[in-house]
Amino acid sequence: MIVITSNQTPEDQINDIIAVIEKEGLQVHLSKGSDRTVIGLVGSVSPKLAEHLRQMKGVENVVKISKSYKLASRDFHPDDTIIEVKGVKIGGEHLAIMGGPCAVESPEQIDEIARLVKAAGAQVLRGGAFKPRTGPYSFQGIGVEGLKMMADAGERHGLLTITEVMTPEYVDVCAEYADILQVGTRNMQNFDLLRALGTCGRPVLLKRGFSATYDELLNAAEYILAGGNRDVMLCERGIRTFETYTRNTLDLSAIPVLQGLSHLPVISDPSHGTGRRELVEPMAKASVAAGANGLIIEMHTDPDNSMTGDGVQSLFPDQFSNLLQDLEKLAPLVGKKFSTQEAISIK
C-alpha cells in the first residue's frame, strides 16, 4: 500500500503520517517525485489503518498495490530512478555503455581493453573474475586477482568497473574492487545472494534469468531493494526459446514493458542476447531505439582466442568504436544523451 501526498505537504505532516505507520510495526519507504511524495508501507495493512491514513492532513490518496513487487513498482516510485556513480549517470535520458571482455585474463589484456573502451567513448569497463560456466572443466575465471587487475585498469583509464558476483561470500570482496556488481542469469533467483546485495553499498545490475518472466525479474529486484539498496538496474540478456540459430532470443519488448512497470533503469545485453558477433550491432541499435538506458557489450582484442570461448559474440575494437559513434548519432533521436567525447572527461 502507498500513501500519496503532494510536494507542498509540510514536512511535519509527512512525519506525522510516518509516525502513525511505524507505530503499527510497518516498514516505511519514502519516495519524492517531481510532483508528489509517495510513502510506501511494507507489511500487512489493516482496513482501519488505511482509513485513518486516508483522513490525515496532507494525504491525497491511499492506494493498494496489487503487485507482489512494491519498491520496484512505478506505482511506488513514479519518476525514473537515476543512478549516479562517480559522475556517471545511468537511467532516465542518460545512455550508459559498458564494454569489455567476458573474462579478465591478464593485466596486459584488461589494461589494453580498458584503454580501447575509454578511447571509444564508453563509461564502464566490464569483465568477469568469477565465471559461472555450464561445464565444470571450462575456464572459471582467475578470482580475486582478476578483480584487482580490473580495478587497476579502470582507475588508470578513468572508467567505472562492473563484474559478476556469484555467491554471498564474495559480495564484500567484489564490492571492494568493483563500482557495480552484476548478477548473472543463473543467479537471478539466488535469494541469499540478492539479500546480501541489498546491503553491499554498490549499484547492482540484475540480469533476467533465461527462462524468467517480467514479474519474476522484478520480484528478484525487490529482494535487493527491500534490503535497502535502491541502486538496481534490470538487464535483458535474452531468453531461451525454440530458436537455435542464435544463442538466445533478445526480448526487445522487455525494455518498454519493464520501463512501464518499474522505475529502475533497463540495460540491454545484445552480446549474450544473440551470441553472434554480426548481430550485436543491429540489436544494440534496436535496443537504444526501444528506449534502453544502457548497453553491456563484449569486446576483445583477440576474441577468437579468448579463454572463455565466447569470442564468437565479442566485437573487435574497431567494431565497438564504430558502434558507439553510430549510437552517438542515434541517441538524441530517441531522447537519450550520449557523447563519445564527454566520456573522455570522466574521473
Question: Any chance you could write out the topology, listing elements then pairs?
Answer:
Blueprint: E1 2-6, H1 11-23, E2 27-32, E3 36-42, H2 47-54, E4 59-63, E5 83-85, E6 88-90, E7 96-100, H3 107-120, E8 124-126, H4 144-157, E9 160-164, H5 171-177, E10 180-183, H6 191-197, E11 204-207, H7 214-226, E12 232-236, H8 254-261, E13 266-268, H9 270-274, H10 277-289, E14 294-298, H11 317-330
Parallel strand pairs: 7-8, 7-14, 8-9, 9-10, 10-11, 11-12, 12-13, 13-14
Antiparallel strand pairs: 1-3, 1-4, 2-3, 5-6
Report what the structure shows.
The chain folds into two domains: 2-63, Phospho-2-dehydro-3-deoxyheptonate aldolase, domain 1 (Alpha-Beta Plaits); 74-344, Alpha-Beta Barrel (TIM Barrel). The protein is elongated, with a radius of gyration of 21 Å. The protein has eleven helices and 14 strands. The two termini are 41 Å apart. The chain has helices at 11-23, 47-54, 107-120, 144-157, 171-177, 191-197, 214-226, 254-261, 270-274, 277-289, 317-330, and strands spanning 2-6, 27-32, 36-42, 59-63, 83-85, 88-90, 96-100, 124-126, 160-164, 180-183, 204-207, 232-236, 266-268, 294-298. Helix 3 (107-120) packs parallel to helix 4, helix 6 packs across helix 7 (214-226) and helix 10 packs parallel to helix 11 (317-330). The chain has 347 residues and is α/β, with parallel strands linked by helices. Strand 2 (27-32) and strand 3 form a beta hairpin. The longest helix has 14 residues, at 107-120. The strands form three sheets. An eight-stranded parallel barrel has the order 7-8-9-10-11-12-13-14, surrounded by six helices. Strands 2-3-1-4 form a four-stranded antiparallel beta sheet. The mean pLDDT is 92.
